[in-house]
Amino acid sequence: MQEATLTPHAFGELEQYRRELTAYCYRMLGSPFDAEDAVQDAFVRAWRSRDSFEGRSAMRSWLYRIATNVCLDMLKGKDRRAVPMDFGPASAPLESNLNVPAEVTWLEPIPMRLIAPERDPADVAVANESIRLAFVAALQHLPAKQRAVLILREVLDWQASEVGELLDTSVASVNSALQRARATIAKANSGSSAGDQPLSEADRAMLDRYVAAFERYDVKALTLLIREDAKQSMPPFDMWLSGRDDVLAWWFGPGIGCKGSRILRPESANGMPTFGQYKPSPAGGYDPWALQVLELSEGRIVEFTFFLDTAKLFPLFGLPLHLDA
User: Fold this and answer.
1) Quick one: fold of 201-316?
2) What is the pTM of this model?
3) pLDDT in tens, 211-244
4) 290 φ, ψ to 5°?
5) Taking the CA of residue 45 as centre, how many other CA atoms within 13 Å lie in the half-sphere pointing to its CB?
6) How far is the C-alpha of 306 from the C-alpha of 232, rounded, in Å?
7) What is the residue extent of each domain of the chain?
8) What CATH number was assigned to the domain covering residues 1-78?
């Protein structure tokens, strides 16, 4: 790494690290809002402690140390961010199973514009895979320092000695933490379908068919597009559904209010196909209902996550808060 010298100009160039630090903090914290706050705090701390930066290490490493400390401070005493699958087995598609648990902090999606690397396609593919919802959700099961070790070693490809220096610990401790983190991640079943591959033309055509079928609420067309073992969740409800039959039973039963919805496609969340869903409004036009984030496998949809906190997420993804008729 090229060393930086202590000059006002050098510290004026912190902005070039914002995207990668935001991606790092997002994996640590599970929220785009917390990640942006963490990076801003890290920049402020870096500026205030600039006199302690002697240029013996690369500025990038120094900033990661500060950002890690910010994240560890933010995680103290806080419950991990959850997904509905953390609360037990799948439920039957009944309205009586809808429940919003108290004091749960949910995993949130992040727009790729905040974190997308400006590098070659291979780097982008790796970044997309390591930012997927399933992987970030699995990271939340790790203690904070194990989380940092796994991200730095497995995602960012740091050497154990570099991670040990950043965390003020030994290489042996880093390797031990990495081994335990890998075991936890494997147990959390974060395995990907084809999330690390760019969308093919066939995938894009399939998603176009999905949008058209969803807007028509065409059960036959939707059945062909959804894999039999598909899952659906709708944070902040802890209910989740397993199997295409139950997903469609919900859509055409308790969820029938989604009939007549309109779909807009914003930028990608977490490197995954993403849609803004608007339900018909009693006052006319269409109101936000969900940010749909989809997982694809073998040319079909294998998981739906409908994030219902549209007041926060739609502005973040550049989606309007009302559509005219």
Assistant:
1) Nuclear Transport Factor 2; Chain: A, (3.10.450)
2) 0.91
3) 999 999 999 999 999 999 999 999 999 999 999 9
4) -155, 150
5) 17
6) 8
7) 1-78, 201-316
8) 1.10.1740.10
